[in-house]
TrEMBL record, chain A:
InterPro entries listed in its UniProt record: Class_I_gatase-like, PRibForGlyAmidine_synth_PurQ
Gene3D superfamilies (UniProt xref): 3.40.50.880
Organism the protein comes from: Rhodohalobacter sulfatireducens
Subunit structure as annotated in this protein's UniProt entry: Part of the FGAM synthase complex composed of 1 PurL, 1 PurQ and 2 PurS subunits.
Catalytic activity: L-glutamine + H2O = L-glutamate + NH4(+); N(2)-formyl-N(1)-(5-phospho-beta-D-ribosyl)glycinamide + L-glutamine + ATP + H2O = 2-formamido-N(1)-(5-O-phospho-beta-D-ribosyl)acetamidine + L-glutamate + ADP + phosphate + H(+)
Gene from which this protein is expressed: purQ
Purpose of the protein: Part of the phosphoribosylformylglycinamidine synthase complex involved in the purines biosynthetic pathway. Catalyzes the ATP-dependent conversion of formylglycinamide ribonucleotide (FGAR) and glutamine to yield formylglycinamidine ribonucleotide (FGAM) and glutamate. The FGAM synthase complex is composed of three subunits. PurQ produces an ammonia molecule by converting glutamine to glutamate. PurL transfers the ammonia molecule to FGAR to form FGAM in an ATP-dependent manner.
Pathway the protein acts in: Purine metabolism; IMP biosynthesis via de novo pathway; 5-amino-1-(5-phospho-D-ribosyl)imidazole from N(2)-formyl-N(1)-(5-phospho-D-ribosyl)glycinamide: step 1/2
Catalytic residues identified in the record: 88 (nucleophile), 205, 207
Keywords of the record: ATP-binding, Cytoplasm, Glutamine amidotransferase, Hydrolase, Ligase, Nucleotide-binding, Purine biosynthesis
Source lineage: Bacteria, Pseudomonadati, Balneolota, Balneolia, Balneolales
Enzyme Commission number: 6.3.5.3, 3.5.1.2
Protein name: Phosphoribosylformylglycinamidine synthase subunit PurQ
PROSITE patterns named in the record: GATASE_TYPE_1 (PS51273)
Subcellular location field: Cytoplasm
UniProtKB/TrEMBL annotation, chain B:
Localization per record: Cytoplasm
UniProt-recorded Gene Ontology molecular function terms: phosphoribosylformylglycinamidine synthase activity
Catalyzed reactions: N(2)-formyl-N(1)-(5-phospho-beta-D-ribosyl)glycinamide + L-glutamine + ATP + H2O = 2-formamido-N(1)-(5-O-phospho-beta-D-ribosyl)acetamidine + L-glutamate + ADP + phosphate + H(+)
Annotated protein name in UniProt: Phosphoribosylformylglycinamidine synthase subunit PurS
Amino acid sequence: MSKKIGVIVFPGSNCDHDAYHAMKHVMNADTTFLWHKDKEIGDLDLVIVPGGFSYGDYLRSGAIARFSPIMEAVQDYVKKGFPVLGICNGFQILLEAGLLPGAMLHNEKLRFVCKNVNIRVENNRSLFTSGMKEGTVLNVPVSHGEGNYFIDDEGLSDLKEHEQIAFRYCDANGNVTQEANFNGSVDSIAGIINKQGNVLGMMPHPERAMEPLLGSSDGIPFFESIFNSLQLA
Amino acid sequence: MYKAKVNITLRKSILDPKGKAAHHALQNLGLKNVKDVRIGKFIEMNIDADSQNEARELAETACTQLLANEVMEDFQVEIEE
């Protein structure tokens, strides 16, 4: 049966159509947009909070979007155990909403970085990553100015203890190096999951790596992994 | 009516790359006695409240709920009449 996916649209979202295209035309899922003013999620198997610059990144990335009516519905949806994937600005929004721990600082070198990077699957015991082997390297684009993930030491130990680190920046061979950690994130973190395991936030854009023509199709095994988990649920 | 003046800065333990870049530039200008620079945000709010304490409480709520992210930022509130 076809999976039902929702992609949230905020004023200033700009990867909503990338996510829609990836889900509908590459993954052949039944995909709909959710408007930021919507108050209900409805009958969906997965909600994607896409990248972009919601509300112009005013104050802090994601800080204003968090107060949209749809985010209250997302809080309920998460409480019920349904999966939510936040990409880039979507990750920032989930952090601001308290659905994931930590915060985003400006990239260490202050530059907006737009390029393909490598990330390593750190943990495949989540519904998002279970279809991939640990250590798998994915080549996916990043495009952000505020992706320098910060969490204090206590929070970091907590993430490690509960196996919440999903992806780390690495080189092409899968080695986590200082050079590969281009934005200065704590412990090279590129993506984390919540304790319940149904929310994933990541800075890289797997939805923009779905077709070889566009440079990489490494997003496909990632979304296949999610879709397989949804199939089993 | 009260005026709340809010200063928001990155927590002391966090490296402030903008401050560091500005510090570096000030050094190049020859202002060698500038030893450290931290860059933050300044926010002013006019608050309708019955007392200074009430205005302060309101301003602090605004900070903790929206204006500052306490995971990475500290804030200071000053209230003026």
